[in-house]
Specification:
alpha+beta
């Protein structure tokens, strides 16, 4: 026996499903979602109906906006270098620094350290280390010299939050692994990784 009630229910559900598909298809065509003729302009911005209601997306090969270096001698960017045993807080300047100058005299670390921090200079970047993975404020003092007689016009404060050392798994030592009989095993060192 055929249950006419179930057959009517199934036919109604199929009709609703097909109607929903048709409405979605027509809505996509009406808002230019059909991707008919999209072109890339010389500026790298996509043009054509595919841009629809969501603005004009940039092409993947278009030039990206970059940070603008400050005019004159000033601080520009800051970064953390946690790749080594001791983290380094680095500040990049708009112009090169003179590696012969005593930059440690122009660096104040807060809270204060038991000993003077290690200050290194390479190109236009000044890095400070020697404080472990503790959050610190580094103040670069007015008068910090650059190459060519430029000086920092005012004190600049930078807050560095280190958090935990990044997770790392690697082989201890500098050797290579070669197959041999009765091997003693290979030492593996880990940092912030649970077994």
């Amino acid at each position: 026996m055929i249950d006419w009630h179930n057959r009517t229910l199934i036919a109604g559900a199929a009709a609703v499903l097909i109607s929903g598909f048709c409405v979605g298809f027509l809505a996509a065509k009406a808002t230019n979602g059909g991707h008919d003729s999209t072109t890339v302009a010389a500026s790298g911005v996509l043009e054509g109906p595919a841009t629809g209601l969501f603005g004009k997306p940039r092409d993947k090969t278009a030039p990206r906006a970059s940070d603008v270096r400050p005019a004159g001698f000033d601080t520009w960017k800051q970064r953390l270098d946690t790749s080594g045993d001791s983290p380094r807080a680095c500040v990049q300047f708009s112009k090169s620094l003179d590696p012969a100058k005593p930059y440690g005299d122009f660096v104040v670390v807060s809270p204060a350290l038991a000993s003077a921090p290690a200050v290194s200079v390479k190109g236009d970047e000044l890095c400070v280390s020697g404080f472990g993975f503790t959050d610190r404020r580094i103040t670069l003092l007015k008068g910090l010299p650059g190459q060519g007689g430029d000086t920092l016009k005012a004190n600049r404060d930078f807050d560095f939050a280190f958090g935990e050392k990044p997770a790392y798994v690697g082989f201890a030592g500098n050797g290579v692994i070669l197959p041999r009989e009765e091997a003693d095993g290979v030492a593996i060192e880990t940092v912030n990784v649970s077994a």
